[in-house]
Structures are given as structure tokens and as C-alpha cells.
Amino acid sequence: MRVFCNQIYRPPPVFFPCMSVNIVSKAQRSRSLSFLPFMHNRLSLSFFLSFFLSFLLSFFISFFPSFFLSFFLSTFCFYFGFSFFLCPSFLSLFYTSFHNYLSFFSCTHTTLPPSLSLSLSLSLFSSFIFLFLLLYLFHGHSLFCLLYTLHYLVFSLTLYFHSYFFSFLISFFLSLILSLILSFFL
């Protein structure tokens, strides 16, 4: 039965080059996450990364309130966490994050697997309140905090509907608008 399933199953094309949807054993999945022994699955890893990147993003933007730096941090660092979540290997991490950052200019429509998009949506939704509190403590501008939280909300909702290119497009332009708002407020 296992051989027959491997023969008929054809995974859909994914956006990340180092990610493959294969039927692997539990031992192989545990070895791939051996560098983080306290994380048992990718969903818990995504929760951890969402909190860590929220703190890192708000910390750097609070000290460097410039337009280009805030725009860079709101796009590149966010997809840096996606690469870390999808490809738990430090060698392929930088290549994947750089590939995701430049892939906006390629007009290809790709989709994510349903389980993966649901995990990403849940991990992003869990960091909304934490991100809002951190940005409010560092900046004191509630309008910017609400807009930036809306940026993550729209991105996670579009990911849930399996439209990665559309969510990237919305995220790109929302980052641009929010960076302009940040440059005016600070």
C-alpha cells in the first residue's frame, strides 16, 4: 500500500526550491529539526519564529525610523522567517530568503499545500496581539500599530486561501504604504 501511494502521489509545484512535499517517516522529520531539540514540529517552530520576528522587527524599526530601512525590514525579515520555517537548514536559509525576496518580480502564480498555509496562518495570527503591544511600547503611535497588525492579518488570510503570489503582492504594497506612514509619524 505504501509503494502504491508513492507511485500515484504527485506533489504540486511549490514556491520554495528546497521544499518538497514527500511522504517521509517520523524519524527523518525529527532529524531535519535536530538543531532545535526543544521544537517538536514545524507548527511549534512557526509559533516561536512569529514571536521572535515580531520582537526583532519592532526593535530595529524603533531605533532606525527611516523609510528604506523600515521597508526592508518589513519585507525581507518576514520572509526570512518563512524560509527558516520551511527549510530547517542554515545552508539553504540565505539562498531561499533571497530567492523569495526577489521572486516578486516573476509573474508566476503558485500555491501552497493546505496544511502548510493553515499552519502559517495560525502562526501569524498568534503574533498579532504580541506585535501590537511591542510596537505600542516602542513607538506610542496606535495608528501605526493597527495598520501594521492589519498588514499581517491580510497576509495570513490570503495565505489561507492558497494564493501565495496574491498575498505577496498585498504584503509588498502594504509594506510600502506603512513605511511611508512610519516616515511621516517619526
Which helices and strands occur, and which strands form pairs?
Layout: H1 2-8, H2 26-32, H3 42-63, H4 67-86, H5 90-102, H6 114-126, H7 128-138, H8 142-160, H9 164-185
Summarize model confidence as the mean pLDDT. 48
Shape: globular
* Main sheet: strands, sense, barrel: none
Number of strands: 0
Oligomer class: single chain
- Written as H for each helix and E for each strand, in order along the chain, the element string is HHHHHHHHH
The total count of helices amounts to: 9
* Structural class estimated from helices and strands: mainly alpha
Rg, please? 17 Å
Quote the distance from N terminus to C terminus: 62 Å
Strand content: under 5%
Helix content: over 70%
Low-confidence stretches: 1-44, 82-130
Brief summary:
The chain is mainly alpha-helical and 186 residues long. 72% of the residues lie in helices and 0% in strands. The chain has a domain at 47-83 and 110-186.
Textual characterization of the structure:
With 186 residues, the chain is mostly helical. It has a domain of 114 residues. The protein is built from nine helices and no strands. Helix 3 packs across helix 6. It starts with a helix and ends with a helix.
Name some characteristics of this structure.
membrane, 186 residues, mainly alpha, transmembrane helix, disordered N terminus, transmembrane, single chain
